[in-house]
């Protein structure tokens, strides 16, 4: 076979292998995906797209060093290829290397200025990098009565503070990506007070211990009624904003039903359906903890967006003994996963919120708006303790 034909044959074979690798990844078999993508790369070693794919699959396998080398190999073959920069930026962010992530994401935007998603992520990274690290010297979290948690800086003015956010941009991001981070929305004393509630059995109606690989590793507790004021106020402050977004989606989807503008009226709708149990939860993960990717499907009456707030400081990678947690990124992805499917990984820290679609996100295909199933979870916490407040806007039966 002449060299040109041989080359073409290798290219075709490598492409088929890459497709098979992503098929295996979409079925959750990352071990097989890794084996196949390695074969693809060795079949056509001068193909930067394959190195980039290998980097992404190794990244999903949490083999960070090898993943980084794969992205670097892709870039050495194609220095203006934007995607490896963006993927390596995401990896560095997960490792807490914020400045490096910023630099890499800047390169991604430079080489693909038309990619709005890269630009949005650059803004997120700038917001996160500009705020971290700042988690030292938190007050101790002794037993605190839930309704005594005071945070004059933020709790009372959450409605006003949320008004100042760019909800147009947040709505666009939620509509396009299915999730959106808001940095530093809850102050440190309030976070600390909420963490301090975790061991008070009087406050919770149910405790779930996750200890299976298909669910996760960690503990979460459902607040009993009445839920702490601080959680109730946060939910009420966010609700009108997310209700407007959800109603825009209803319109785009051609649905006639609308969500009420105030949370109490939406709660009445839940109660009419027999859903009267509070849904907010407090989650606690130690080292080795994680939350497997899942959809939240409870509730015939349900709200499509959920709020979560990270209550623990993230470790500063430059100074890992500051006591924060490591790993534990918020994960969000299409389900099933495929080569072109959407995936987000947000390295949230103390007081950072994320709004995310609990079941489906909107997708536009050929001018028609439809729904794409999505999952969320948390990646492995490699050190420290990570508390999270989860706030669905509907109630359960
Ligand atoms: Fe969930």
């Amino acid at each position: 076979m002449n060299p040109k034909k041989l080359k073409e044959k290798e290219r075709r074979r490598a492409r088929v292998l890459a497709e098979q690798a992503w098929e295996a990844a979409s079925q959750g078999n990352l071990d097989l995906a890794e084996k196949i993508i390695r074969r693809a790369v060795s079949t056509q070693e001068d193909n930067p797209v394959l190195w980039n794919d290998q980097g992404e699959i190794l990244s999903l396998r949490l083999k960070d060093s090898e993943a980084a080398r794969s992205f670097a190999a892709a870039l050495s073959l194609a220095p203006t290829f934007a995607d490896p920069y963006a993927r390596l930026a995401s990896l560095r962010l997960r490792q807490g290397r914020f400045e490096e992530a910023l630099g890499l994401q800047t390169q991604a935007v430079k080489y693909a200025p038309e990619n709005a998603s890269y630009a949005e992520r650059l803004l997120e990274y700038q917001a996160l990098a500009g705020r971290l690290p700042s988690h030292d010297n938190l007050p101790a979290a002794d037993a605190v009565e839930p309704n005594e948690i005071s945070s004059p800086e933020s709790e009372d003015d959450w409605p006003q503070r949320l008004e100042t956010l760019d909800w147009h941009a947040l709505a666009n991001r939620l509509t396009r990506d299915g999730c959106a981070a808001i940095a530093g929305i809850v102050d440190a004393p309030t976070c600390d007070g909420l963490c301090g509630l975790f061991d008070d059995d009087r406050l919770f109606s149910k405790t779930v211990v996750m200890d299976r690989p298909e669910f996760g590793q960690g503990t979460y507790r459902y607040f009993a009624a009445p839920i702490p004021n601080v959680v109730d106020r946060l939910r009420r402050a966010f609700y009108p904003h997310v209700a407007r977004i959800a109603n825009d989606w209803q319109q785009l989807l051609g649905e006639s039903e609308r969500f009420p503008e105030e949370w109490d009226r939406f709660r009445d709708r839940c109660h009419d359906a027999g859903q009267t149990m509070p849904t907010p939860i407090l989650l606690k993960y130690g080292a080795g903890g994680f939350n497997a990717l899942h959809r939240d499907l409870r509730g015939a009456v349900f709200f499509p967006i959920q709020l979560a707030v990270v209550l623990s400081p993230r470790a500063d990678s430059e100074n890992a003994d500051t006591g924060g947690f490591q790993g534990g990124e918020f994960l969000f992805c299409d389900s099933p996963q495929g080569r072109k499917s959407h995936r987000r990984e947000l390295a949230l820290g103390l007081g950072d919120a994320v709004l995310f679609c609990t079941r489906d996100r909107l997708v536009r295909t050929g001018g028609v708006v439809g729904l794409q199933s999505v999952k969320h979870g948390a990646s492995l916490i490699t050190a420290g303790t990570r508390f999270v407040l989860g706030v669905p806007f509907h109630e359960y039966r």
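The pocket of fe (ii) ion is lined by residues 294, 296, 376 (CB under 6 Å). The first strand starts at residue 179 and ends at 182.
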